[in-house]
Amino acid sequence: MILFELIEYDILRVIWWVLLGVLLIGFALTDGFDMGVGALLPFVAKTDIERRVAINTVGPVWEGNQVWFVLGGGAIFAAWPPLYAVSFSGFYLAMFVILAAMILRPVGFKYRSKRDSQAWRDGWDWALFIGGAVPALLFGVAVGNVLLGVPFYLTEDLMPMYEGNALVKFVGLLRPFGLLAGVVSLSMLILHGAAWLSLKASGVVAIRAREIGTWAGVVALVTYALAGLWLAVGIDGFTLGEVAANGPSNPLYSEVTRGGSWLGAYAARPWIAIAPAMGFAGIALAVLGLRAGREVSTLLWSKLGITGIISSVGLTMFPFILPSTVDSNSSLTVWDASSSHQTLFVMLVATAIFLPLILAYTAWVYKVLWGKVTVEDITDTAY
């Protein structure tokens, strides 16, 4: 109880904003290479045995990696209910497509080897490709649209409202900048998957992964730079007026104006430039690592790049979480879209207990499964 009183509401809101970022980054760092391997599968592996090598690098760990996705969704639901309601209402069809694609992965893993038919296995391999490439692309499209702003408004009783049906809202997400952000995400995760295959696969699969991953890294660097330039000169940002950081969670109490550039945040908080610097440096060093044939360091550089790129979005937008293009005052921010003080505190205590356990278990699993997957290793496997 004493600790509850010591941690003020505004501090808890920032803590949960950081924790949400940690969970999303954790998902990208772990399940991201699963998606990258899926997107690479038809191109790095030409024969059935080569594809089994690639698949078995992620087969034992993908389920554990998706824990981060579940935790991220749960954190949004519990810590940021308005964000959950608004984003899932507006991105409903996009979320459905992402989940449908992700469901193809476990089905593909379980069923591709159930029949000794090349056509059957090829079909499931393309399903695994869809399960990797589509979510990687659409997650980036969603982030791009968050930066652009989403066309919603809140009624007096805080009900989110959109115009148009689900299909119209889905097509509306496919704006040029959103698609560019999708390419950043897809190429970034393909690089990450290539770094993973370079570490875990053997033979020609690893060689092809290094070659394709190098080009994916170049694309990620170029498109990330273009996205930053576009933000600087072509997209209006949002500005939050005076706000009570300890006030109630009601976005309609805030005054938000649109204008200027998102990148004005770097003049106000110069230290946040470390995030894009990490993004560029990590991706560039991962590309060089792939070309040089380095393994562990390449995967670590790839993780650094992903951390920097995702962090740059959150730090650039702070304190905004989901801005509105229809009614600026309906925009969701860190200060007005959270759960209650008590809810955030109870969740923080639970997180302090269980997150270290998840990290410890994850580290143990990867230690146990350390080493390359070879043709000899997969002779008797199910995938």
Summary?
With 383 residues, the protein is mainly α.
Describe the structure.
This protein is mostly helical and 383 residues long. The protein has one domain. The protein has 15 helices and 6 strands. The chain has helices at residues 2-6, 9-44, 48-58, 62-65, 67-79, 81-90, 92-111, 118-148, 166-173, 176-200, 204-234, 265-268, 274-292, 296-317, 341-368; strands at residues 152-154, 160-162, 236-240, 256-261, 320-322, 332-333. The strands form 3 sheets. It has a two-stranded antiparallel ribbon. Strands 3-4 form a two-stranded antiparallel sheet. Helix 2 (9-44) packs across helix 10 and helix 2 packs across helix 14. The protein is globular and about 65 Å long.
Count structural domains: 1
Low-confidence stretches are none
* Strand order of the biggest β-sheet: 1-2
What is the CA-CA span between the terminal residues?
51 Å
Present the secondary structure layout.
Elements: H1 2-6, H2 9-44, H3 48-58, H4 62-65, H5 67-79, H6 81-90, H7 92-111, H8 118-148, E1 152-154, E2 160-162, H9 166-173, H10 176-200, H11 204-234, E3 236-240, E4 256-261, H12 265-268, H13 274-292, H14 296-317, E5 320-322, E6 332-333, H15 341-368
Antiparallel strand pairs: 1-2, 3-4, 5-6
